[in-house]
């Protein structure tokens, strides 16, 4: 996770309804607005997507749908994620005992 993007991963469906999997599509939801927006289509052999242009310190949820020729699956939905930079300032030095 970076300050403006996140990569999500999922497992392939156990059952594709007896038909070949066509692919996936992914949606995001800014929790403050509670509106779902499509952010990408993913080929059937891939199970990850990097979502960019997110707002740092904002909370999002993501959901993935599998597709075959008949329709789409129920959503696989994430927990709420807060976007934060993975780079942080150093921790303060520990205080060492003084020798006497």
TrEMBL record:
PROSITE patterns membership: FN3
Keywords: Immunoglobulin domain
InterPro entries: FN3_dom, FN3_sf, Ig-like_fold
Occurrences of domain Fibronectin type-III (ranges): 1-86
Entry superkingdom: Eukaryota
Protein's name in the database: Fibronectin type-III domain-containing protein
GO cellular component, one term: sarcomere
Organism listed in the record: Laodelphax striatellus
């Amino acid at each position: 996770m970076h300050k403006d993007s996140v990569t999500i991963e999922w497992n392939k469906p156990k059952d594709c309804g007896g038909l070949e999997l066509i692919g996936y599509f992914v949606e995001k939801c800014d929790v403050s607005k509670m509106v779902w927006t499509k952010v990408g289509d993913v080929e059937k052999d891939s199970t990850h997507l990097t979502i960019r242009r997110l707002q740092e310190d904002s909370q999002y949820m993501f959901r993935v749908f599998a597709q075959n020729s008949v329709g789409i699956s129920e959503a696989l939905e994430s927990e709420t994620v807060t976007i934060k930079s993975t780079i942080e300032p150093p921790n303060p030095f520990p205080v060492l005992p003084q020798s006497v």
